[in-house]
Automatic annotation (TrEMBL):
Organism: Amycolatopsis suaedae
Protein name, entry field: Uncharacterized protein
Keywords linked to the UniProt accession: Membrane, Transmembrane, Transmembrane helix
Residue ranges of the TM segments: 53-75, 130-153, 159-184, 230-250
Domain of life: Bacteria
Length: 264
């Protein structure tokens, strides 16, 4: 017979608040949910600051490397996307946050050894149509626009391929985060805790979304009218990608939890 995990008073309270915000009122969450949600909300994983520091250093080095590459190729600053530093900073922040959440989940898994993957579902279950659509538009649409710019208007060739470079960096980080989130161990022992596990993964996907980097090139329009023929296509692309993302984020955030046993 499996013993119940023990949650602290603060973890239980944090889990109760999390559930209440999503329409479930319980006085005492089930032990598994108290540990799972409480660890996510309260526990600061060991090595947290060092882990985040490493990602920040990696971000600084990558940003420096990108700038050095562009400088070595003698590309005039006015002919390139100015958001390379912003893109790297966003990616570094999201990787650091992902590392923190992963560490918290690993600590929870260590306290729930018999409940890791004791129930299962498709690895793709946390993905919803809005997330897939927004990510596809953000990266697929960006690549299509940049390629069109490169082929149709050679005078903006430098701008186009530096934009492709930034999309590649953000896309690589996005792919890494999605795969890592979907492949993480399932912490659940019944359909209710499985629904919570799926909800947390979906929340991670939306919270850690490098697709927001599509907004960065728009800052060029505030500084200079470059590239002028693509002002509205680029603005429309960013608006569509972020609009789909916002709808999905709001839907998953306000979606009620399914009926189940969450506690007493």
């Amino acid at each position: 017979m499996l013993s119940h995990p023990t949650a602290s008073l603060f973890e239980t309270q944090a889990a109760r608040i999390w559930l209440r915000k999503r329409g479930v009122e319980v006085a005492t969450p089930t032990p598994l949910l108290a540990v799972r949600l409480g660890t996510r909300q309260l526990r600061q994983p060991s090595g947290h600051k060092q882990r985040q520091f490493r990602y920040w250093i990696a971000g600084v080095l990558l940003s420096t490397g990108l700038f050095s590459l562009l400088f070595a190729l003698r590309i005039p600053e006015e002919q390139m996307v100015t958001g390379h530093t912003g893109t790297v900073i966003i990616c570094a922040i999201q990787l650091a946050e992902w590392a923190t959440r992963r560490a918290r989940d690993r600590e929870a898994a260590a306290r729930l050894p018999h409940r890791v993957a004791s129930v299962s579902q498709s690895r793709l279950a946390p993905l919803d149509g809005w997330y897939v659509a927004s990510t596809t538009v953000a990266f697929g649409g960006g690549i299509a626009l940049a390629t069109t710019m490169f082929v149709a208007t050679p005078q903006y060739g430098h701008y186009a391929w530096t934009w492709l470079l930034l999309l590649g960096v953000a896309g690589a980080v996005a792919a890494f985060l999605v795969v890592s989130i979907l492949r993480a161990p399932t912490l659940a022992d019944d359909t209710t805790s499985l629904a919570i596990d799926t909800r947390l993964r979906r929340s991670d996907l939306y919270d850690l979304c490098p697709a927001v980097c599509v907004l960065i090139p728009l800052t060029d329009f505030l500084q200079r009218d470059q590239p002028a023929p693509y002002t509205w296509p680029m603005a429309g692309h960013a608006a569509l990608a972020m609009g789909l993302f916002a709808i999905g984020w709001l839907r998953q955030r306000h979606r009620p939890l399914p009926a189940g046993h969450y506690g007493t």
